Amino acid sequence: MPNRPLIAIVEDDDSMRPAIAGLVRSLGYAGEAFASAEAFLAGDVAARARCLISDFQLPGLSGLDLADRMQGVMPVIMITARTEAGLDARAHDHGVLCLLRKPFEADDLADCIRRALDNGAQAGRH
Amino acid sequence: MTTESRILDLIHESVITRDPAGIILSWNAASEALYGWPKTTAIGCQIDDLLQSRFAAAAPDRDLMAPPADWEGELIRVTANGTELVLDVRWQAERDATGAVLRIVETARDITERKAIDDALRLSEYRYRNMFEAMAVAFWEVDFTQVGAMLIPLRDQGVTDLRTWLLANRDFVRRTMERAIVLDLNLNGFALFGADTRDAIIGRAIADFWPPASEPVYIDSLVATMTRQPHIVSETRLNRVDGEPIDVLFTVSLSENNRKRGVMLIGVVDISARKQAEAALQRLQAEFAHAARVSVLGELTASLAHEVNQPLAAIATSASASMRWLAAEQPDLDEVRSLSARIVSDARRAAAIINRVRAMAERRETERQYLPLNQLVAEAVAFLDHDLAMRAVTLETRLASELPPVLVDRTQLHQIVVNLVVNAAQAMADSPTRHLCITTSLAEGAVVLAVEDSGPGLPAHPEQLFESFFTTKSSGMGMGLAICRSLIEAHGGQIVAANGAVGARFIVTLPITPRS
Predict the structure, then answer these.
(1) Are the C-beta atoms of residues B181 and B143 closer than 8 Å to each other?
(2) Model's pTM, two decimal places?
């Protein structure tokens, strides 16, 4: 189904990456997953995706670095296993739309993706 | 010259006749040769004045002043040139019809040399006895003649590898022990084995004092006898008379002489106290090592929690996705199947992480096995992958191929690697580049593990690093390197610290132990 919105996923953990991709597909979207920010940026998915779900901590280019580069390009949902205080504020400063903590509820991710797509649609209208 | 004196001159033994007062009546040629006095001088002299006779053994009932007419025994006399002789002497009296002594005929043989040999022998025996009794070592003299008789037919039966055969035939070994009889035991032996009387041990079979677990040492001794090794030393455990076990250092001396007699001389040194001290030290070391492991685990908690959280989060996510697929009007069973498979493998991954942590946290007896160092390094590093990633440390491993296995305790070796790596990672906390290199290599008789970091290098006195509670870091495991050193030394290895190309380098050397 070519008209399903494409969601990009960047997650270095070998368990989480396919799990998020599976969840995204079960929500009715198309998903493409990458193990690093560099791998994601190298292809054309960055140009086609409507939203990015990224892990906070990545080898090489970090999740926040990636969020910086995606400002104005597509909305970013960030996932992290870290628990320290102040993380939400930092994520917000880098333009992150949602920050989810692992393990997260599927419904929360679904909400975030819906908001991101609305957001992106609005942004696209400007 | 009378016929009688001519005949006497032909005799090789000294023959002297004297009257009852000891005045010399005749003196043959052999007497001249023996005592150095010519016949002309000797005849007419009092014999005991001339030769300064005295009894060799104290003999209160035999007084030279009133010597018996018929006697035989040992006398000491002095020759014309002053040499002392020991003589085997025989006196025989010639009497008249009334029984009164007319004259005494004496024959004498020089036994000085034989006497000297006897004395030396007796002295040597006396010394041996003294040594045997007084040594701070328990000595057993064991009669193995019957055991030898049991072993010899084995060769005819085609047994070539005696040791292997004996190890496999313990009933036979026991039977030989029941025929190996204790001939003698010294004082220390009685004390060590708790015997009140000689009969408690002497005359008994060694089987009574030899627990089955110590049979291999006995077998080695038998093999040593049969293969004519001169000496064996081994640690083992024997039983006292009351059945209490004692740890001993066991030596067997197998001189050619003893072998011919079928006697083994067994020396037994009590090393119970040393063994107890060693065991206590080992327990203490194990406790410290355990405490240190737990402390490292404490430091790694954040990274371990993170690591175990990943597969758990993945499981939750995959399960949610499955439920969504199943709730759809047309469930995509292929998706559900693949998600379920993911859930299973993620659950296994989480369990594996927990097992790793549990192995590190477990308090258990050390157990040495022959293991490949490279694999142990890889396992330890897997433990730290996540921690290193969180600390933004890049890790490089350069592992030499074809290293011989090392005889080590798996958990302790993991702990050594984990401690060195965590130590290096912490040292690099404020460094602009955080690079860690683990190298394994082969040296002469040893394998070498090196951990090199790109941190600030060693402090002024690197030796202090290995002292407990010394640390250059504000936070961290003060005991890490001290524990590392004690674990490495317990494995017969060593650790040294040096400055590397950039940061610090810790080099661990572990001996290659040949498999027995």
Answers:
(1) yes
(2) 0.54
